[in-house]
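note to self: dont lose this again. the chain is below, predicted strucutre after it. 507 aa total, dont forget to put it in the shared folder this time
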Amino acid sequence: MYSRFPAVIASFCPKNPISTPLPSQHKQRKPNESFSRKFLNPKSHVLAGFVQLINQKYPVWTDKIIFYTMLAATKMLNITSYGCSIVTDILRTFTAPKNLIRKMKKLILMATALLPMLANAQDDLIRKIENNKSYTIAPKSDAPAKSDDKTKYHFNTLIDLDHTNVKNQASSGTCWSYSTNSFLESEMIRMGKQPIELSPIFSAHCMFMDKADAYVRMHGGLSWGDGGECHDVINMYAKYGAMPQEVYTGLNYGTTKNKFAEMDAMLKGMLQGVVSNPNGKLTPSWKKAYDAVLDAYLGAIPEKFKYDGKTYTPKSFAAERVGIHPEDYVEIGSFTTDPYYKKTMFMVPDNWAMQRVYNVELNDLTDIIDNALNKGFTVAWAADVSEKSFSWKNGVAFIPEKNYDDMDDSEKKYMFDGPKDERVISPEMRQAAFDNYETTDDHGMHIVGLAEDQNGKKYYIVKNSWGDKNDYKGYIYVSKAYVSYKTTAILLHKNGVPNRLREKMDL
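---
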C-alpha cells in the first residue's frame, strides 16, 4: 500500500510545476545515526520525501494545503506524533532548510493531534450508545414467560417478512448501503426471484465517486464522509448497476472487515487540497488521483465479471438478476415546515445529492409502514439512534414517558428491563427535536416485521448491520413512538403506500 503513495501524489500534482531551487545558504546536517538506525522506516522516508518535493516544486502552496495533505498522509502512513522526530531527522539528510523542518514538525504535530478525531463516525455512534442497556438479559423472542420474569420483554411476532442474513458493516459509515441493499434483497424475494447477497461496498464505491464530484463543484460546501442516504443506493443502482457480494467485497487493504478511517482521512485530505485551488485553476488530474485511492482501498470495479456461470456487467447484473425498477421507489419524511403530500428538500447533512422527499403528516409515517408490512413490502429506515432509550445491547428502542435526566438511578439502570409507558409524540415535538439537533440523521436500518409485547404494544422488527452480538442476534424491537419521533426518512416501493396517500401524493 505504501509503495502506491508517491505515484498517487504524483498524479495529483500538476504536470508542469514551477521549479524552485533549494536555498544554498543553509548548512548540511548529519542525521542522528543511532536514532535513525532504531526508528527510520520506509513509511517515514516516503512522507519526508513528499514534504521535500512540496517545498521544492510548490513553494506557493499555503500552510493550510500542506497541513491537509499531511493530515491525510500521517493517517495513511500511521505516523504518530513520536514519529515527527523521525521525519525531521530524514529531512536533515535531505539538507532541508531549517524553516522547513520547523514548519513540518509543527504541522505533523498538529495533524497527529487531530487523528483521534478522524475515527469513523459509525464507531463513535456505537461507543455513544454502548452503555444504553439494563443489567438483565432479555428473553428470546416468543419465549414463554417464567414466573419470576413477567415484567421483562416478551415479544410475539405478528409479521416476519423474508430477508437475508444479518451483516456487519464494521468500522465504516455505510449503514445506508447495508440497510438499503438488504431492502433490495427482500424486494427480490418479494418478486419471486432467487435472493442474492448484494455488495454494499459496490454501492458505496460508486457513491464516493459521485459525491467527490459534488464536493468539488460545491467548493467544499458539502459535509464530507462515508455517510449517505437510502436513496443513494437506488440512485447508484440506476446509474451504475449492482454486484454480488462474493464478487466485490471491497476488502482490498488486508483486513477481513471494513475499516474505513484511513481511507476517509486520505480522501478528505485530497479533496480539501483540490478545493483550495492552489494553481488558480483545477486540472482534471485530481479525479484520476482520487479514483486511484478508492481503487487501492476498495478494489477497482470490473467492467465484466462472472457469476453463476454467466458473464455480466454491473448494469446487466442489475437488470437480469436483481430486476427492480428504480422509479418505483419513494422516499418519505414528515416535517411541519413544508406543505404535506408534496416533495420537499431533505435537510440533513448526508443528503449530498440534494434529493427531495415526499412530506407526509406524522401519523402517516407509521400508517405507511404498517400498510407496507401487511402487503408484504419491507421498508428501509433512516433514523436517529443516539437516544438514551435506544439499546443495541438489549435490542429495544422506545420513548420513555419521563426524560432521562429526570429519572432516578434505578429507573436508568433498569430502563430496558421490560415494557414502560411512553410519551405521546406530536408533530411539534418531532419537528422541535429535528430543529434543535436532538434528532440527527445517524443510522440506516431495515424494517422487516411487526411484533407486540405482553401488553399488546406494537414494535417494528428491525434488522441492523452491526453483526449479531446483541440479545436478539442482530435485530432490535423499535416501538411505534420511537419511529414516529426519531425517523428522518423511510424508503419503500410505492405500492406499499396506502391508496388514500398515493392519491394525495400523486404517485
